[in-house]
Amino acid sequence: MTQTNERSPGEEYETLYSRLQQIVEQLETGDLPLALALALYEEGVATAEACQRLLDHAALRVRTLMDGGDQSLAMTETDE
Question: Rg (Cα) of the chain, in Å, rounded?
Fold first, then answer.
């Protein structure tokens, strides 16, 4: 049985969202060194943007399916 390392967009979203929650919790402690806080903030912004792209793609798929369009719409490299 072959196992792939690819995740579905839903799994990827959940993983990213979980990481974003961890980042927020760490930042909310308020007792981080400035450099670490800035690095976490940057990672949080990038993670939030990635989550938003996945949500936008999911919304596009739903609209396409509701319109009876191409049901094989797949996420492409350019979507990321």
Answer: 16
Q: Which helix (H) or strand (E) holds 25?
A: helix 9-29
pLDDT in tens, 36-80: 999 999 999 999 999 999 999 999 999 999 988 655 555 554 454
**DSSP structure string for the chain:** --------HHHHHHHHHHHHHHHHHHHHH--S-HHHHHHHHHHHHHHHHHHHHHHHHHHHHHHHHHTT--TT----GGG-
Residue-range domain boundaries for the chain: 38-73
pTM confidence score:
0.71
